[in-house]
Amino acid sequence: MRSFRFLRLLAATTLALLAGHAAANEAVIRKNLAERLPSLPRIDEVRATPMPGLFEVRIGTDLLYTDARGDYLIQGVLIDTRARVNLTEERLDKLTAIAFDELPLKDAFTVVRGNGQRKLAVFADPNCGFCKRFERDLAKLDNVTIHTFLYPVLGKDSEAKSRAIWCAKDRAKAWDDWMQRGVQPPAADARCDTSALERNLAFGQKYRITGTPTTFLANGQRIPGAVGLERLEPLLAQAAGAAK
Predict the structure, then answer these.
(1) Would you say domain 100-243 falls under CATH 3.40.30.10?
(2) Where are the domains of the chain?
(3) Which residues form the Disulphide bond isomerase DsbC/G N-terminal domain (predicted)?
(4) Strands 214-217 and 144-150: what pairing?
């Protein structure tokens, strides 16, 4: 019994020493980087990585790496070669995830197919070529609920088309007609309330949605770009399982 208590005490002491050491490293890194690189934005977080002696420096959702004293700064990708895992990408996925129930779905239009059990939300620009390709893949999905956020970031024409689609009697049809068949949506009525588009842009800026299409799954995972069905299908299944 005494040896068990001793081991517990030893483990607690070791953890306390490691925590103190990590805090000391963080303070040194923050101090040295701020003094040596005054143009560097404010550091949000410093944390140890699985690689001994290497620390992650997080600025917003930008990740840099440094040694224990901040003498060297590395911009790049950290890969665990044994597990064959991109640790940088894995970390970014967690940092940029958005809880699905935090999405302002009132500012999107929704399509339900089949039982609608699989859920995703897409931020898309009507003049985005990758978005059009992605829409062709999304059209092949069944048993899905798709919330589309009009996200006009590619200029004035994108804004005009987004207003026209948002103000259409059938938004989903107007969207599909334009994205898949090239049918121009009728011009928006000047009396139509398009403030949802402004809110979408503000939401995207807040959550760093920098490109289109950007998709969010039911488990909060963010998927940038026009991924194909061969990648999307297993991600949807995984997200549906996690959401249960």
Answers:
(1) yes
(2) 3-96, 100-243
(3) 21-89
(4) unpaired
* C-beta neighbour count of 199 within 10 angstroms: 14
Instruction: List, edge to edge, every strand of the sheet that includes 62-66.
Output: 45-48, 55-59, 62-66, 73-74
Q: What whole-number distance in Å separates Cα of residue 227 and Cα of residue 244?
A: 24
Are the beta carbons of 154 and 127 closer than 8 angstroms?
yes
Identify whether the C-beta of residue 240 lies closer than 8 Å to the C-beta of residue 145. Answer: no
> Could you tell me if residue 222 is left (phi over 0), alpha (psi between -120 and 50 degrees) or otherwise beta?
beta
Task: Establish how many alpha carbons lie within 13 A of residue 70's alpha carbon, considering only the half-sphere containing its beta carbon.
Answer: 19
At residue 45's C-alpha, the angle toward residues 18 and 72, to 5°, is 80
64-111 pLDDT, tens digit each: 999 999 999 999 999 999 999 899 988 987 888 888 999 999 999 999
* pTM of this prediction exceeds 0.90: no
Query: Length of the chain in residues, anyone?
Result: 244
Give whole-number Cα distances, 213 to 109, 126, 128, in Å.
15, 10, 8
Could you please state the CATH topology (level 3) that the domain comprising 3-96 is classified under. Answer: Nuclear Transport Factor 2; Chain: A, (3.10.450)
- The residues, any chain, with a CB within 8 Å of residue 94's CB and separated by 6 or more, are none
How far apart are the C-alpha atoms of 160 and 98, rounded to whole Å? Answer: 28
The whole-angstrom separation of Cα 223 and Cα 221 is 7
Q: Which own/partner pairs from 45-52 qualify as long-range (CB within 8 Å, at least 24 positions apart)? A: 48/22, 49/78, 49/87, 50/80, 50/87, 51/78
Alpha helices, DSSP H, located in the chain? 2-36, 87-95, 129-138, 156-166, 171-181, 195-206, 229-243
pLDDT tens per residue across span 198-236 = 999 999 988 889 899 999 999 988 998 999 999 999 999
